[in-house]
Amino acid sequence: MDRAEIGELVHRFFRALDERRFTPGWTAGLLTDDARMETPLGYSRGAAAVRATEEALGRYDRTQHLASGIIADVDTTATASWNALMVHVRGDAPFMVGGRFEAGLRRTAGGWRFDRMAVRAIWTQGEPPAAVTAGPTAPRVG
Q1: Among 87, 78, 63, 83, which residue's Cα sits nearest to residue 15?
Q2: What's the pTM?
Q3: Residue 80 contacts residue 10 (beta carbons within 8 Å)
Q4: How far apart are the first and last CA of the chain?
Q5: Which percentage of the chain shows pLDDT scores above 70?
Q6: Which residue spans within the chain are E strands per DSSP?
Q7: Confidence band, pLDDT 50/70/90 cuts, at residue 134
C-alpha cells in the first residue's frame, strides 16, 4: 500500500508540473514545508524550492515529465528513486533530459510527502534557453 501511494505521489508531482497548477499552496499535498530540492540548476529549500521550480518551468511553453521504474523502500520514513524523461518545449525547439530522481519522504497526517528530492541528468538533447544553462552539464545526445 505505501509503495503504491508513493508511486501515485510521483505521478501527481509530475502532472502538477506539466499542468502548471501553481496556485498558492499547490505543493501542500506533495512536499513538506521544509523540503529540499536539488537540480542541475542549484539547491533550494522550502518556499524557495517551490519558487525555483515555478521559475524554471516558466521558461518553457510546454513540458512533459514521465516517470518509470519507481523503486520505494519504506519504513518509518521512505526513500524512492525513478527514471525520468523530461521534455521541455520553447517555441518549436524541444530540450529533453533523461535522468534519475532520488527522493526522501515522510509520512504526514495527510499521507506521504517528499521532504527532499534530487534530479540527476544522465543525458540531454537540444539546447536549453540561455537562462537555464547553469550547473553541471550531462552528455548530449544527437
Answers
A1: 63
A2: 0.87
A3: yes
A4: 41
A5: 91
A6: 31-39, 42-45, 62-74, 77-90, 93-108, 111-125
A7: very low
Q: Where are the alpha helices (DSSP H) in the chain?
A: 2-19, 47-58
| Confidence bin at 62 (pLDDT 50/70/90) | very high
Amino acid at 34: D
Q: Which grid cell is 54?
A: 515555478
The CATH label, of 1.10.357.10, 3.40.50.10540, 3.60.40.10, 3.10.450.50, for the domain at 2-132 is: 3.10.450.50
Separation of alpha carbons 120 and 136, rounded Å: 10
Q: Tell me: pLDDT of 129 over 80.
A: no
Q: Taking the C-alpha atoms of 89, 94, 95 and 97 in order, what is their torsion angle to the nearest 10 degrees?
A: 100
